[in-house]
Amino acid sequence: MVFNRRLILVLMLALVCALFSACATEALLPTEPAAPTPAQEPEAAPTPAPTPEPDADALCTMCRDGFFAAFAPDYSGHDYTSLGMLDMPGLIEKQPLYAELAADTHTLAQMCARTAAQDVKAMSSLIDRTSVTVTGKLDWRLIAAACTMLDEPDKAIAAHTDVSVTIEGKTLNVCVSLPDFDALFAPLASDVHYGAMSLYCYLNTTYDNNAQILDNDGSYELSDEYIATIIDPLPKRHIKDGWYGDRSKSTRRHMGTDIRAREWQEIPSCTAGEIVRIAYNDIAGNYVTVKDDYGFYYSYCHMVELTTFLSEGDRVEQGQLIGHVGNTGNSDAPHLHLSIIAPEYVYINPYPVLARVRYDK
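The chain above was modelled as a monomer; its predicted structure follows.
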């Protein structure tokens, strides 16, 4: 019995040792390396959809925007100011500067238009070639009027420049229109408009492109039908043919005809039209300007007092009272100074006009 217990104990110890040995052996055996996980290929980025080319309208708009983003004339580095009609010698001394500013502005417009057109051409297969033109009447005379009457003439010119862009076939056409007189001054107050017009018309009438005095007799062809729309403002009063005579110590020329009359004599309007200016200045004195139905401007100057019974913008009929003869402004005796500006912005000689009306000549 004792033997059996010893035998059982020995067998149990042997079993425990066998188990322990198996565990230790398993711990010492090398571990099989794990099978590598196959690398995942990155997902292909989606192919972006092609950007559609701008259509013709969009290309034209981009070209216009590109031009205006770049077109910024700058006159600030020059002393371009002038007293205009009150100092014609001083203005003519600056004529080379005004001519330079006109040429530089034209060149800048061409350059900006070409650059904008080339930029648009580079982004479109619709365009093979470009064409650029620059038009307008921005000469030294208009620059002189702008520099005399406007605080920032360069910005005004840029603001009133127009650009037309079209595509014909595969050609991108860019047409830049630099502003003319009407574009610059028509929207402005009457004092600025009329002051600029008087100066601009004077320069057009008396000076050529090189600021040399013109031999201008003031002639202008008017039809019999037009003459029939005019009346003599002061019948039986002496008309003086003083066109182009020296004034202000020979610093300017006389742009009109003088009619002697007693002070306070009534002045009727020669034509039907609209009153565009009632004002005073040191040369014309008290004056009224009427634009007739055919685009001619009639100015009645040196009136005894400022007309108060009419207003700018009023309609007047032929023969309607617009003021009274006086001696104000640059005048040495009571008289009516009549000037006429043609639609082409030049002064014309009123003497032959009134002679046809009065004497049917």
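Residues 56-206 form one domain.
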